[in-house]
Amino acid sequence: RTVYLNGNYLPETEARVSIFDRGFLMADGVYEVVSVLDGKLLDFDGHMARLKRSLNELSMKNPLSDEEYLDAHRRLVRDNDITDGLLYLQVTRGNPGDRDFAFPPEDTQPTVVMFTQSKPGLADNAGAAKGIRVVTVEDQRWRRRDIKTVQLLFPSLAKMEAKARGVDDAWLVEDGFVTEGTSNNVYIIKDGKIITRELSSDILHGITRAAVLRYAREAQMAVEERSFTVAEAQAADEAFYTSASGFVTPVVEVDGARLGGGTPGPIATRLREIYLEEARKAAI
Ligand code: PMP
């Protein structure tokens, strides 16, 4: 694989980052994930807008121009022959040359890394056809989940707990209300209405979420942005999650309660079709 590191395109085995990099020592960095279908980038502008917001919230410089990000994405897709897959972009506060809680001097260059993952058939994965099963886990993350930081230890632990309990993912719960999945935004459908938590610093502002809610409203579907409880989720007609890598993926079981007979519901299935069709059309 060819990867990008600070302006250079290198074989992955030659890309090296300092042991003093703030990303490594303090999880002091942000990231984005863009999906690739048919060699084209989905929702690219939205992901770049969120990257800049995340950097800004952490007082980090934006190291590249929009054009440079786009060129690098396209070059990695081409050089790695990616038809369907994902592109990860990570920016850390760089290497101050030693360990210190205080931010490094202004002129410290951020570390910028990009790499691809090839995922043939990304848009027709088994989870989407069968629906996935989730368990709920107390949300123990920090309070700024609207910033897409590389601090992914808690979601990783929650994912492992879900696997240990024999299901696919965990839904995180705070004060009795579902926040989001380990790496996705979550939705329930009751009596034809799509319900998803409102935007705040409690959740990541999903780029796929924004697109899917727009398409749902354009298709005259009812949308309500509010928090919902685990009990409401268990009594829902359908459920699904959204993310750049999973698009719209049906959820058919929450803490052992089967939704809609345990198979993907019609609204989630329809939204997945609409999202994939529209996102492919708009891909660059
Ligand atoms: N919430 C969390 C915690 C996530 O990690 C992700 C995926 N990065 C999402 C939501 C979905 O965001 P997006 O649609 O932009 O991929």
TrEMBL record:
Stored SUPFAM superfamilies: D-aminoacid aminotransferase-like PLP-dependent enzymes
Protein family according to the UniProt entry: Belongs to the class-IV pyridoxal-phosphate-dependent aminotransferase family.
Top-rank EC class of the record's enzyme: transferase
GO biological process, one term: amino acid biosynthetic process
GO cellular component, one term: cytosol
Species this protein is from: Paracoccus sulfuroxidans
Keywords: Amino-acid biosynthesis, Branched-chain amino acid biosynthesis, Pyridoxal phosphate
Enzyme Commission identifier(s): 2.6.1.42
Biological pathway: Amino-acid biosynthesis; L-isoleucine biosynthesis; L-isoleucine from 2-oxobutanoate: step 4/4; Amino-acid biosynthesis; L-leucine biosynthesis; L-leucine from 3-methyl-2-oxobutanoate: step 4/4; Amino-acid biosynthesis; L-valine biosynthesis; L-valine from pyruvate: step 4/4
Catalytic activity entry: L-valine + 2-oxoglutarate = 3-methyl-2-oxobutanoate + L-glutamate; L-isoleucine + 2-oxoglutarate = (S)-3-methyl-2-oxopentanoate + L-glutamate; L-leucine + 2-oxoglutarate = 4-methyl-2-oxopentanoate + L-glutamate
Cofactors: pyridoxal 5'-phosphate
Protein name: Probable branched-chain-amino-acid aminotransferase
MF GO annotations: branched-chain-amino-acid transaminase activity
